[in-house]
Every structure is written in C-alpha cells, then in structure tokens.
Amino acid sequence: xxxxxxxxxxxxxxxxxxxxxxxxxxxxxxxxxxxxxxxxxxxxxxxxxxxxxxxxxxxxxxxxxxxxxxxxxxxxxxxxxxxxxxxxxxxxxxxxxxxxxxxxxxxxxxxxxxxx
Length: 116
Prior knowledge:
Layout: H1 16-31, E1 35-38, E2 53-57, E3 63-67, E4 76-79, H2 80-115
Antiparallel strand pairs: 1-2, 2-3, 3-4
C-alpha cells in the first residue's frame, strides 16, 4: 500500500462529529492530490447502502467507497472489495430481520387468538 493511501477503513462512523473530522481529512487529501474522485454508475441507487462517492489513491493502487452517515445509518469508507462484501452482509442481515420479524408477528398473532 502506498504511504499516501488509507491504512484502515471504517465500517461505521460512531458520530456525526467523527464523520465531519474524517470528511475534513478526506478533503485535505483531495486538495493535496493524494486522492482523486472516480466516476461511479448512478443507475443503481436502489440500495440503501450504496456509496455516494468513490476515490482512487494516487498512482491508482486502490479505490475506496464512501457512504456518508444519515440519521441511524452510520455509513462506511472501505476499499471496493470490502465495501461490496459489507453491503452483502448488510442486505443479508436486513433480510433475516425481516423474516424473523414476520415470524415473530405471526407467532404473536397465533398466541393471541389461541388465548381467546
């Protein structure tokens, strides 16, 4: 990894203040030409965890994705491969929550009607 690239990624930003600090650092790297914005495909915006921006390190060694936090969503900043795996994990987790939520609601409904 080049010294002007990122050493670690973030799977979440714990607070909006921490994200603001990170964003200032990111803009500083852009100003110093250690990073450059990369065009991304805007046709796939149906994913809640879709990145808002991509950045390539100087020398083109790595490309990173940024999804900014918004309310309860904590965002992320990760290399492309890790970001794709992270989004898959989030979708799987959301799917399981939905299935378990429906199963829980169904069992509560059955319990209610069996008590009557």
